[in-house]
Amino acid sequence: MLFNLRILLNNATLRNGPNFVVRNFRCGQPLQNKVQLKGRDLLTLKNFTGEEIKYMLWLSADLKFRIKQKGEYLPLLQGKSLGMIFEKRSTRTRLSTETVGFALLGGHPCFLTTQDIHLGVNESLTDTARVLSSMTDAVLARVYKQSDLDILAKEASIPIVNGLSDLYHPIQILADYLTLQEHYGSLKGLTLSWIGDGNNILHSIMMSAAKFGMHLQAATPKGYEPDPSVIKLAKEYAKENGTKLSLTNDPLEAARGGNVLITDTWISMGQEEEKKKRLQAFQGYQVTMKTAKVAASDWTFLHCLPRKPEEVDDEVFYSPRSLVFPEAENRKWTIMAVMVSLLTDYSPQLQKPKF
């Protein structure tokens, strides 16, 4: 019987190619995971399909359950090393990646600040990428310019992960989506209401929300809209997936009917000289209970932190509807999942969540 099954499988593989996936004929489900991310870069979520992003979230939930709930020790990254380049400081990105993320899985992270490494200054980006490729298994870089990440990825022979850039912040969005999946039970059909700057967080949402069947309503002040190239691609994603994309300059219009109210800093690192101008431009964009009154009855609130009172008042930020602290914790589980998926062949043991 087993011999005959092997013959059938071999014949099927010859007919269908090496990517043939055996199915359980009784339940119609794959017996192996078709998503393979090992060796990939994570520069932006536009480079990933909906199924690939869902896989990273599934793996995040799996690691969270096995380590936090069951108390298991999983040295999945034992013998692996990670270079961490931080041109911009961060509490959550460093802590989630370094001590409680990569190290918890048995790996060895190496933290590099601007005092240790100057991208493209003392050494070219090409040379830096090649040196790091010879000494580490992956690099997470938190940088000012997306173009620097693109060059690192082009020249490196190891995975490069975007820890934040001027254009995208993909690892933050993974944490946001895991938080929403845990709260709502599914992401499909949710309406995300963005109220704030047309920045890297919004860009990353625009590159991924439609792939989950989520709608997006974004309000930004005039002159602070999202990047035109991002808007163009986001419209294509919305059309492909049958979702709604609305861009406005009216915060209440964006909040109306939204399940998730989302904002972020109005003044990113490197924009300090624009503070006075930005505070003036963002008048009326503070998220308050007045904003929430026009949202859906099950509304929740997200902010990637750190938060300033002018962005969201205390009544909303510390309310039971606020998910900001579970969101912050999930930075840990999602970055762990990213590293495991890019560096190992591990597959989740937990049943796949509903997305």
Automatic annotation (TrEMBL):
Localization: Mitochondrion matrix
InterPro entries for this protein: Asp/Orn_carbamoyltranf_P-bd, Asp/Orn_carbamoylTrfase, Asp/Orn_carbamoylTrfase_sf, Asp_carbamoyltransf_Asp/Orn-bd, Orn/put_carbamltrans
GO cellular component: mitochondrial matrix
Domain Aspartate/ornithine carbamoyltransferase Asp/Orn-binding, first and last residues per copy: 188-341
Known catalytic reactions: carbamoyl phosphate + L-ornithine = L-citrulline + phosphate + H(+)
Pathway where it operates: Nitrogen metabolism; urea cycle; L-citrulline from L-ornithine and carbamoyl phosphate: step 1/1
Keyword set, alphabetical order: Amino-acid biosynthesis, Arginine biosynthesis, Mitochondrion, Transferase, Transit peptide, Urea cycle
Enzyme class: transferase
Molecular function per GO: amino acid binding; ornithine carbamoyltransferase activity
Coiled-coil portions: none
Pfam families: OTCace (PF00185), OTCace_N (PF02729)
Domain of life from the UniProt record: Eukaryota
GO biological process entries: ammonium homeostasis; citrulline biosynthetic process; L-arginine biosynthetic process via ornithine; L-ornithine catabolic process; urea cycle
Main location: mitochondrion
Keyword hit for Transit peptide: yes
Subunit description: Homotrimer.
NCBIfam families linked to this entry: orni_carb_tr, PRK00779.1
Similarity-based family: Belongs to the aspartate/ornithine carbamoyltransferase superfamily. OTCase family.
UniProt name for this protein: Ornithine transcarbamylase, mitochondrial
Species of provenance: Otolemur garnettii (Small-eared galago)
